[in-house]
């Protein structure tokens, strides 16, 4: 089948894409900016990429019309600020207009379980999107899911952050709300099994795992999996806004996503319609097994996608790839050049591992203070870490930076700041081959926004002197400890 995949560079989109290719489907991936959609080598010759923005209907005109089915995997989850409802409505309406010009027989939408009488804004918006998609000529299949558990999912990462960082938790009363968590691999199974399945046409189906748990029980079971002793107390005094701030400061999430989750988690998300088991019989994984698999992927450095790599996890605009060239004028800079005395490949590997668990090679406590101040100012902070310990791709987040260029052959890494600063900031690493050997060039560049931006840069100069020189030197000279020889 010829399939259009929207949201192809999102958390679900990146997971389902290789599965569809493996099933021999012809996949057309629609993304807002192809420059930040990096495919693994095994998929590059098997996937077509089209540029399209659902908020700009003229960009959809070039999309193929001879498709058999389409996946609509577009959600706000903190995007577009307070206008997300109108944006989601407009996106769905534009998509239906396009879809009605095609030969598509089916459109599949991943929504949320929404059985409560009074829904949160986000669940109500998803229900409204269902109704809009139902206006398309193509047969609509809606899969309504509860909390999705998988390595890199927003729900899993937030639960993980809470349990691993807080021995004692004073939590809001919504932790007593109930849900039916489902493993990401089961979600992908249903999404693909529903494709081209007439029994799923014009159906709105609920999917969930076998366990019905409160959010408090989810935290406690994750603590069991990690062999951690945790004490959790719920209190009624935390308002939704205070609860959102609590999640924002304790976990790696953005405030917009924290607010969206808190609003949604006040509703029970329990499967009340089990028709899916008659149409697509499938044994879903228990919550504890889903947790174990998620941790296995993390430990094996096999996290395919993460919510942190979506733009809504930070503060950047959709056109951030326009900044891949550092401006030549109006910049304040700090440039370091260090002669490389070891194998340049080792230094390149040091660059590729920067941030996350490896840290920033110099005075990490100062980076942590900067991350805390960023959180206080409403930024992303330093807790996002990185998706993979050794691999990076364009569009990934690394702590409070976003990757613009990751070019191994040319030995260049370019990061763009998502932290709150009065201006725009870049951090670039290059390895340069000159007549007398290899050099590491590290460039911190800042384009100030008026007087406040200049004052900020000069106020930071003492810290820059400590951080940047030491960081470049340590990257150039750091060498991993040799592995101990195996015992006979």
Overview of the structural elements:
This protein has 488 residues and is α/β, with parallel strands linked by helices. The chain has 13 helices and 19 strands. The protein has helices at residues 11-22, 84-99, 121-133, 154-165, 184-193, 215-225, 240-250, 255-265, 275-279, 287-299, 344-352, 364-376, 450-477, and strands at residues 2-6, 26-31, 47-51, 69-72, 106-112, 139-145, 148-149, 168-172, 178-179, 182-183, 203-207, 213-214, 231-235, 332-339, 397-398, 401-407, 412-417, 423-434, 437-448. A 7-stranded parallel β-sheet has the order 3-2-1-4-5-6-11, with helices on both faces. A hairpin with a 2-residue loop joins strand 15 (397-398) and strand 16 (401-407). Helix 4 crosses helix 6 (215-225). The chain is globular and about 70 Å long. It starts with a strand and ends in an 11-residue tail after the last helix. The model is unreliable at 311-322 (pLDDT under 50).
Short note summarizing the structure:
Helix content is 34%, strand content 21%. It is built from 13 helices and 19 strands.
Distance between the termini: 55 Å
Mean pLDDT: 84
**Which spans of ≥5 residues are poorly predicted at pLDDT below 50?**
311-322
Kindly estimate the percentage of residues that lie in beta strands according to DSSP.
Answer: 15-25%
- Share of residues in helices: 25-40%
Strand order of the largest sheet: 3-2-1-4-5-6-11
Globular, elongated, flat, extended or rod-shaped: what is the shape?
Answer: globular
Number of strands: 19
**What's the main sheet like?**
7 strands, parallel
Give the class from helix and strand content and strand pairing. Answer: alpha/beta
Radius of gyration (CA) equals: 23 Å
Total helical segments? 13
